[in-house]
Amino acid sequence: MNVINVSDLRFGYTSEAVLRGVSLSVGEGDSCCITGENGSGKSTLLKVILGELRGFTGTVELFGCPIAQLRDLSRIAYVPQASVMNKVAFPTTCREMVSLGLYGDFGFVKVPRKRHFDRAEAALSEMGLGRYVRTPFNELSGGLQQRVMICRALVNDPRLLVLDEPTAGVDNESKVRFLGLLEQIRHDRNITVLLVSHELDLVMKHMSFDAIYRIDAGGICRA
Q1: CA distance 177 to 181
Q2: Which residues lie closer than 8 Å to 38 by C-beta, 6 or more apart?
Q3: Are 94 and 133 in contact (CB under 8 A)?
């Protein structure tokens, strides 16, 4: 079964199309990389796949369901770019940040309970981040922030992990460590991975992919 199925996708923020006839598929348990130059439409494609952008033509399905009709979002986890995480200004601890991955289980008042914090602490410890449980998230280095975000993404045991330029804005040592961790997670959990990166040479040194796509001028092809 294809976890992601995109067929003849066309989208534009204005009358000018950003994505033109994009088609791709990602099977269950597979790892897929989408690459291309900055501004080529990679992040736009992710936003459409995740249902953040509407007004497209073509087909976008996750787990065999049209994205507009998908209700079980707990199966999908998203890790944004480091630059997005750097905008977190309020004093959220790592435990609180990871517990947000369980938001769908917070109940009517949408407040985390002890069981959510316990799961967050366990996830951080499993990732080797137990000593940062009560550390403010915005005091961590970019590399550590990415690992915390992986914890938040995985704490709900998703079946699809989507990452947007996860190595951008962090030092090279952190990039290598993060990609190695991601490869290990993929195999240990048999999780489907969709990774967007303009650093193809780097990610290919540390990860294996079942498919690599390149976006150029709004079109897409197998790389």
Answers
A1: 6
A2: 198
A3: yes
